[in-house]
């Protein structure tokens, strides 16, 4: 249950999102998730829960090399030196020797520093401190600029994606460039997506829950969803999406939900506090 990144490293096909959770909530959620079989854990400096995630990883009933810990650089640490510092602070809070995937959380084009920031991530990868490097909430034009100026492609772009905002064009572009699409708010952030008749009908037909139908849609599109749940039963069901499949007709039915627009920030204009 992994997808191969362009740098040759395997990434789990589904993970646990941890926003919004505080340290203690994250510690409990990650501990439980790992016991259920989750191996990919997604956090960020700006979530304020890296210590909790790190504590759970330290005590996890899984070897460190079997876990895939992702964290992200916050906007306050854009720039080469600041990014190296930001990484070190995250690594210390997590209590880890290395992270599996390090992402620039937002491009913040108004700041004009994402290329320098990317150079720092390239350095961290060369040092083995970040095993894989990528971006989050970047547009193709922004990624092209990274590559023109540094020659290094991100292997992942983590973006908002759910049936209401399916990122068709971006996914096609990612596929051309061997970039894995990681989906944040894969369930539509708990909004009415899971009550849509298209989804509830498919859930009934497959004997699954609406969330499982939506997560399976992500997986079949080749995206890596990171559903957040702090509830142990929902966490369990969200992970059980590898023992059934949706037909092309099912996928097409879900595709009719497109058009709802974004829930979160726009890469070109988002200003992170
Ligand atoms: P909870 O933490 O109480 O389970 P997203 O990952 O798309 O942002 O969605 C997260 C939201 O969806 C949270 O409010 C979470 O609440 C809820 N959620 C997570 N898993 C499920 C599920 N299987 N069924 C219904 N709601 C879910």
Topology:
Blueprint: E1 2-4, E2 10-12, E3 15-17, H1 23-36, E4 40-42, H2 50-58, E5 68-73, H3 80-94, E6 99-104, H4 114-126, E7 130-136, H5 140-150, E8 156-160, H6 168-176, E9 180-184, H7 197-206, H8 210-220, E10 224-225, H9 232-239, H10 248-255
Parallel strand pairs: 3-4, 4-5, 5-6, 6-7, 7-8, 8-9, 9-10
Antiparallel strand pairs: 1-2
The structure holds adenosine-2'-5'-diphosphate (A2P).
Task: Describe the protein's architecture and organization.
There is one protein chain. The protein is an alpha/beta fold and 273 residues long. The protein has a single domain, classed as TIM Barrel, CATH 3.20.20. The protein has helices at 23-36, 50-58, 80-94, 114-126, 140-150, 168-176, 197-206, 210-220, 232-239, 248-255; strands spanning 2-4, 10-12, 15-17, 40-42, 68-73, 99-104, 130-136, 156-160, 180-184, 224-225. The longest helix is centred in the N-terminal third of the chain and has 15 residues, at 80-94. The termini are far apart. It binds adenosine-2'-5'-diphosphate. The site of adenosine-2'-5'-diphosphate (A2P) has 18 residues, from helix 9. This is Aldo/keto reductase. Pfam families: Aldo_ket_red.
